[in-house]
Structure to design on (89 residues):
């Protein structure tokens, strides 16, 4: 196994990680922005007010995007395991 192969596998792993985590981060970011605007408009400064909606948004996003996330991860792992014989030899 050459160093370039190791770097390529690591790069693919980071890309898959970012791709799979993006929907959850975007949902949390959008929810946090909306709650922050609401807090600024109403001058309510409660820490739990931003935590609970983010938690709910991430949970709903996980339910909606979960099958796609599992498919992407399993495809990557299958490709990686399938490439083991060529990586060793």
């Amino acid at each position: 196994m050459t160093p370039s192969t190791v770097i390529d596998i690591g790069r693919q792993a980071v890309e898959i990680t970012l791709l799979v985590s993006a929907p959850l981060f975007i949902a949390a970011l959008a929810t946090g922005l909306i709650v922050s605007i609401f807090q600024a408009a109403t001058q309510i400064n409660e820490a739990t007010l931003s935590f609970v909606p983010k938690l709910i948004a991430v949970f709903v996003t996980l339910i909606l995007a979960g099958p796609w996330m599992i498919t992407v991860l399993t495809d990557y792992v299958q490709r990686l395991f399938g490439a083991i014989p060529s990586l060793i030899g």
